[in-house]
Design brief:
- This protein folds into two domains: about 170 residues, Jelly Rolls (Sandwich), CATH 2.60.120; about 120 residues, Orthogonal Bundle (Arc Repressor Mutant, subunit A).
- A hairpin with a 2-residue loop joins strand 3 and strand 4.
- Helix 3 packs antiparallel against helix 4, helix 6 crosses helix 7 and helix 9 packs across helix 10.
- It has about 300 residues and is of the alpha+beta class.
- Helix content is about 45%, strand content about 15%.
- The strands form two sheets. Strands 1-7-2-5-8 form a five-stranded antiparallel β-sheet. The chain has a three-stranded antiparallel β-sheet with strand order 4-3-6, with no helix packed on it.
- The longest helix has 19 residues.
- It contains eleven helices and eight strands.
Length: about 300
Amino acid sequence: MEKLQSLEEFYCSKFDYIPENIRNRLGHFNVFTIDEYLGKNSKPILYSRKDYFKITLIIGKNRIHYADKIIDIKKQALFFTNPQIPYKFEWIDDHKAGYFCVFTPEFFHHFGNLNDYDVFNPNAIPVFELSDEQLAVADSIFRKMQLEIASDYTHKSDLIRNLIFELLHFAMKMNPSSKRKEFHSNASQRITHMFVELLERQFPIEEVTQRIKFRSPSEFASQLSLHVNHLNRAVKEMTGKTTSELISGRVLQEAKILLSHTEWNVSEIAWSLSFREATHFNNFFKKHTGLNPLKFRSSAAH
């Protein structure tokens, strides 16, 4: 798996320039057509994390490798990515069209936390296939972005942020069943947010020397200065899942990523995921997938 790609590296690899305002305190935004991005001298997208947010309107058959999943796009879709999860595109046919925009977290400073939206949730599948009518709506939003970014209007950043929010809500309304519970205590929400943030902070594993520190509910509770029962109740109330289920799910997701996109041996992966023995990791993986790690790696390669 490739290391994290910076916004500067993105511009250098695709356009041979770095905008002057790329790291200013107000944040950075830009929008492109996919034709422009996929020029004759373009390089393939490598499976990696990026240190910026990205929203892509894909028109054409495509295969997306996202975290531990492979998602086939049959015709057209919206795809949301965040700095936490690695991904890459694999075009299936010669028809490539659409748009994408990139922006830094600072672009939304004081305008909300993007990680609170389901489309940027690490556990979600942020791909939304579109009908022709939905495509027309998304296409018009990207065209408005292009007009605003090219204008000299003083407050164009506000308008662009509104258009990004419009895309977020447009996508989330397609899948209302993914809504989070709205009736909960503020304390449970705060505790669950801190737990999820601490869990996600341990990932992704990008170096063979990197190792996660917390694997059990009691370890997370201790780190958060909570009784483990208090943590478990809050997490169950907010997510409908136990703390152990969320931890195991995230560890399993990372295990699949490492088996599919690195050449590390099973012992190295087991150590990185804080298993004392490779056999413990083998048992954990087979319990949740029905396959041992090497059989999973072999099947993922085909």
